[in-house]
Design a protein that fits this description.
Layout lengths: L1 E5 L2 E2 L2 E2 L1 H17 L3 E6 L4 H6 L7 E5 L9 H15 L1 E7 L2 H14 L2 E6 L10 E6 L4 E6 L5 E5 L14 E4 L30 E5 L10 H10 L2 E4 L1 H5 L20 E5 L5 H7 L4 E6 L6 H4 L2 E4 L2 H16 L1
Parallel strand pairs: 1-4, 1-6, 4-5, 5-11, 6-10, 7-10, 12-13, 12-14, 14-15, 15-16
Antiparallel strand pairs: 2-3, 8-9
The protein binds flavin-adenine dinucleotide.
The site of flavin-adenine dinucleotide has 27 residues, from helix 6, helix 7, strand 15 and helix 9.
């Protein structure tokens, strides 16, 4: 019995959420007195594969099949389930990111395993195998006992800080038995969204709402984001109005983000917006209305006009960084 962790990659680079999942899986392996193996599919850089050893795995199974360059859930499921069989893995760990959300439930179904999606704790094995997750948009926790023999856990990104060590992992080629018939969809074109930092992986997000009055005023959001090395986001009405692209919209019907710092500018803090951002470690709210509901969820609040406050904040960060 061992632990298998799926580490997804983009353009040969392992994603941050996967390093977190690998570190989590390695700690669970230590807890259960077993070993941890990572599995990587598609073209990946050798240095990236070896780097997984720094997060506690002793072995990396590498499936260097060009057809796996783009994620295809059915084919990925088959390969990961085969890797789990090969390793005799009792616990299979995923990052709870887009890829993990698509593949973990399929692998769980295939292996007849119980699944906790969005885990925020290590398993408590004192009485069963209990893993904690957020429910009701982060308003409550559920402690879930996985009672099946095999168990699948998808780890919520940005929950367990990375503490890389200096371990090494052996990289072993793994030839999965997939054929073209296993690919049910084919990616014909990839259009990459421009922007320095992907929103779901950003450590800092500067977000704007309707209080900014129009798209012509977004310069103050972008300037602050630039000096902080942050990604930009928006409330939904802003995206609906076409002020910002829809892939920046966060909330119940948009992306869920969990940065270390979320700065909300001119956003009222409606429940549907909070649903997507209340997992942020620190929330700073800038709003001219002291009664804005967002202040109740904020760690720090500035009551003031965004057009005065934000440029001053940007300037202060610039000065601080010099
Ligand atoms: P507003 O509510 O108009 O708030 C603007 C804020 O800016 C106000 O608090 C105001 O005091 C402040 N302000 C104005 N001028 C200034 C200034 N000069 N300086 C500083 N502050 C200023 N919304 C989302 O964001 N994400 C979602 O995923 C989402 N999903 C939804 C799903 C459903 C089913 C429904 C019904 C709604 C959803 N909404 C969502 C909409 C949500 O209910 C709110 O309407 C929306 O979040 C409000 O956006 P806002 O805060 O930008 O605008």
């Amino acid at each position: 019995m061992s632990i298998l962790i799926f580490a997804d990659q983009a353009n040969g680079k392992i994603k941050k959420a996967s390093f977190e999942a690998v570190q989590y899986g390695a700690k669970v392996a230590a807890q259960l007195g077993t070993t941890a193996t990572a599995v990587v599919l598609g073209p990946a850089e050798n240095a990236e594969l070896a780097a997984l050893g720094n997060y506690g795995v002793s072995k990396v199974l590498y499936v260097a099949d060009n057809r796996l360059h783009e994620v295809e859930s059915t084919a990925f499921t088959k390969v990961i389930a085969e890797a789990a069989e090969k390793e005799g893995a009792k616990v299979i760990v995923f990052p709870h990111n887009f890829d993990g959300k698509a593949i973990a439930p399929r692998v769980a179904a295939r292996l007849k395993a119980g699944l906790v999606a969005g885990a925020i704790s290590y398993p408590d094995t004192s009485n069963g195998f209990v893993v904690k997750k957020n429910v009701f948009s982060g308003k409550a926790f559920a402690n879930i006992n996985i009672t099946s023999d095999r168990k699948v856990i998808a780890v919520l990104p940005n929950t367990f800080p990375l503490t890389p060590g200096s371990g090494t992992a052996t990289v072993e080629a793994f030839a999965a038995t997939i054929s073209d018939a296993d690919f049910k969809v084919k990616v014909v074109k990839v259009e990459t969204v421009s922007g320095d930092v992907p929103l779901t992986e950003a450590e800092i997000i500067v977000s704007g709402g309707r209080g900014l009055k129009g798209p012509e005023n977004w310069g103050i959001v972008e300037d602050l984001a630039k000096v902080l090395g942050a990604a930009t986001a928006s409330s939904r009405p802003v995206a609906d109005a076409g002020w910002r692209p829809h892939h920046e919209h966060v909330g119940q019907t948009g992306l869920t983000v969990r940065p270390n710092l979320y700065i909300a500018i001119g956003i009222s803090g409606a429940i549907q917006h909070l649903a997507g951002v209340n997992g942020s470690k620190v929330i700073v709210v800038i709003n001219k209305d002291p009664e804005a509901p967002f202040f109740k969820a904020a760690d720090y609040g500035i009551v003031g006009d965004a057009f005065e406050v934000v440029p001053k904040l940007t300037e202060a960060v610039k000065q601080f960084k010099q």
